[in-house]
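dumping this here before i forget
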Amino acid sequence: AGLSLSTFTDSSEFINGQLGLDPATENAFFPNFTLPVSSAFGLINLVDANTNEAFGFPQPFASSADTIIDIAGGGFIQGIDTIPTVAGTNIPVLQVFDPAVGLRAFNPGLAVDAFGAIGGDGITQEDNTELLLPEQTRFLFNAGTDYELHENITFFAEGKFAFTEATEQAGIPFNDDIPIALDNPFIPAALQAQIQEIIDLGGSPDLTVSRDVLDSAVFPVEDIERTTIRAAGGFRGTIPGLGFDYEASYTWGRTEVESVNRNARIEDRYFTAIDAVALTAADLPNLDGTLNALRAGEDIQITPDSAQVGDIVCRSELDGSIPPSNLEGSPFSVGNPPVDPDNPEEVRAVSFQFGDGQCAPLNIIGLNAISGTVGGANFAFQDLTDSTILTQQQILLTVSGDSSEFFELPAGPIGFAAGFEWREDASNFTPDGFRRIEDVVANSAVVNASPITTDEFPDTIDVIEGFAEIQVPLLAELPFAELLEVSGSVRVSDYNTIGTTTAWSVNGRYSPHEWITFRGTYNEAVRAPNIGELFGPVVAATIGVGADPCDDDNINNGSVFREQNCLAFVEAGFNSADFLTAFVFGTSGGNPTLLEEEAETFTVGTVFQPGWLFDGLTFVADYYDIEIVNAIDTLTGQEIAEACVDLPSIDNQFCGNVFRNPANGGAISGFTAGQINLASLAVRGVDWSATYDFEMPNYRGWNLGSMRLSAVGTRFLEDTVDGDPTSAEVIAAITDPLEQELSQTSLDIANDELGEFTRPEWIATLGINWELGKFGVNWQGRFESSQNSINIVNEDLVDVVIENGAVVVNPNTGFVDPSQEKTGVGFAQDISFTYDWKEKLGFFGGVNNLTDEDPFLGSLTRNVNPRGRFFFVGVRGTI
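structure:
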């Protein structure tokens, strides 16, 4: 399990040595990976503002063989990476309040870089994965009826109701440098003593706290309720004299998705509640109205008559003071509250009014501290409800039959089907009111209702379609021609969004003998962008601090134009970590200008059933070759930033969607991402299956039942994704033929995803099913061939260089230790049983992941899920 929670990131010679890996490799999977810029305890930063920087994280380790000293379960090398102290004192500038031992120095663990470590007090993956397996409840009801009005007319109707409820983890909000006033009553006594020590030395103490919200009472989760209602009705029957079947129907459906983001942090309230103060005797005569307060750990409401010295209240409720933001001394902090444009060091109230009686005090110092201040938690954390309503209407008319009433070919009648369809899809998204307020919801941008209807972009998808299919039997029951038939189909669609499209296919089947059939298909298909892709709501997205393509670590990882283009935004040697921390927020959403996807598919295969030799054996194999152009996918903030500087000029369609702040060295301050049409996808492979059904031989008069052996799998031959919207233009702009070849070779390797994580060359499922009367046992084995470990792509494992006037592809031996490069073969086994006790009552049970296999390195969900081995039993019946 420890390996499964490992994280892949940059490494060093020292760290590799500690992990027993090749010291020369640049990257590694780290167990117990932590984020040392925050802590579940709350990371306390106490400095003397006269002599210390406002923010002081430890620096990464240098190479050393010094002894690792275990501090609170993590590795800390004394003398190499010690926490700095306030000048003239022994007070560490980074501390945590640990309930087990009290105030102590923060343990950064084995530092990997500014935002990663092994062990220590930083945020762990376990902290951020509380809900590995979302809770889910389902309820489904179907009903239908037929009524024969006439021998050729039947009325039918059906209805469906489905309800699904699921709970999953939402994003964990984080803040750097939350200012804590020195008279804050939640400051522990030991920390108060340190503050006084700095004051006694003539210093000016400055106290801030950085923390992720991991407290149990306000841990962020998302409850999603999906309710679907569908009703359909119509008429079907036979056309007299023709023998054709017809059907005419109308269908209406509605799905309502209610997403409740529980414990969403409201930033202006959060900062206001943190700025708490204890009442003094001088405050009591000046109180007015009712205030939310904390007394002896209990939430109460106080009035001028009931207030007591020591009651803790929000400072803004007491005297109208505006709480400080976290911009003072740290202009590049993450998680900023809304601020006064004229004074960015002060919070601006946008979801309430200062002094309106709503605020309640909140404690953020210490493990699970927020949970102990319930009133403040209820004020600062709100449940946000977003609603999406999807509706669809459909009119469908079909007629099908064959030519038997009129003529037949020597091999039989010609079959056909034709029809007409009208369909309308509509979507409406209504975000919670808090989401429409600027800078107020943590980890989010402003989100508006959608779609926004204009003359250019409608808010529904309307389509009219006509379709026809034909099947022509050419030969049948002849020597070397047991069956020969061809078929074809065509569908013409007229969309109000993308215009007219045409899809068609041709198919053939040939059986020279009854035990073997050959088949093939060629089709050109179209998929129109759906309503979510066109009109999906704008949602929050992020880009990591190390993802800036202009960062000095990334400047040589793009096109030949990247380095020069980046100089238009940043200075040479730019380090984004000097100006940002953790991540930057942007937005992502639908794109009403999307084009349709177009696919060409070719398949050829065989079905083999040699009943004369092995009765019950069936073998099927199909080769497929699929290519999709204009494939719809999401372009991330990182990909947009890279496209901006990788093109020959920064005067392109991408740079306008990346926002940089010159005051912060040109660091990325925001972006706009969303759905786009990518270049192409290409997949080739062979699907195959084999089943063998047979009766077990009797043993001494005992019937041993029947057996089925099965194997189903795929051999992937190609998996190529050309998702770089700049590649063709960039390569065409390169004037040197050898450099152009190098770029094309690099691109081809980058586009090849076969063998990468989740894209193995072989996948197979093996099965043995034994049935004896009412009892059945099933064994299943799931096999995956070895693949690159998570986050390792094919282009990382090679170096494409020019040697002796030619482009050469060499192994990148320094990228990662060979022991961590591949997942290894995955094989998981499940076993289950069924017992039909009575006609309408039975039992079932089994064991999944029988041998308790771990997920692949760096993964929690493949090729087995996080449960490990688990048992299940159940009862099923019919009323």
